């Protein structure tokens, strides 16, 4: 996104054809819906998730309020990728390969955190 802002003719690494074209997607307003490039959300979000995973592997135990925060975060991410998918598929008519990788990772992450929270009683079943 930043390279496209600097150079309007920039060809992204994932500009494969008319359908799989990150540049086309990044040139639309949906690529910076909150006023900054959407990839920043992913960088911050996945950094938080990796940190939580590392802490859990080290033996950390978190309180319910923490898991509610994680649930809100992954639910936002899941809803956001559904919206982004609908925009790229039905409005922009192009798909970003790197975005699709993030979508594929976000869905099982949402399912896993939600299932964990239901089993642990954080979310009442």
Which range best describes the helical content: under 10%, 10-25%, 25-40%, 40-55%, 55-70% or over 70%? 55-70%
- Element-level helix/strand string: HHHHH
Please describe the biggest sheet, giving its number of strands, its sense, and whether it closes into a barrel.
Answer: none
The helix-and-strand class reads mainly alpha
The stretches of 5 or more residues where confidence is low (pLDDT under 50) are none
Overall geometry comes to elongated
> How much beta, percentage-wise?
under 5%
Rg, nearest Å = 17 Å
How many separate helices? 5
- The averaged pLDDT comes out at 90
Number of strands: 0
Entry summary:
The chain is mostly helical and 125 residues long.
Would you write up a description of this structure?
The protein has 125 residues and is mostly helical. It has five helices and no strands. The chain has helices at residues 2-6, 22-26, 39-57, 64-92, 97-119. α4 (64-92) packs antiparallel against α5 (97-119). The radius of gyration is 17 Å and the shape is elongated. The termini are far apart.
What keywords describe this structure?
125 residues; mainly alpha; 65% helix
């Amino acid at each position: 996104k930043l390279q496209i802002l600097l150079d309007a003719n920039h060809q992204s690494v994932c500009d494969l054809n008319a359908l799989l074209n990150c540049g086309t997607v990044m040139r639309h307003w949906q690529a910076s819906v909150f006023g900054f490039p959407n990839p920043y959300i992913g960088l911050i979000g996945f950094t938080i998730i990796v940190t939580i995973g590392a802490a859990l592997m080290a033996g950390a135990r978190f309180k319910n309020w923490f898991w509610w925060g994680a649930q809100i975060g992954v639910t936002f991410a899941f809803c956001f990728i559904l919206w982004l998918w609908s925009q790229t598929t039905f409005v922009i008519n192009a798909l970003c390969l790197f975005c699709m990788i993030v979508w594929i990772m976000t869905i099982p992450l949402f399912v896993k955190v939600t299932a964990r929270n239901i089993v642990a009683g954080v979310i009442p079943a």
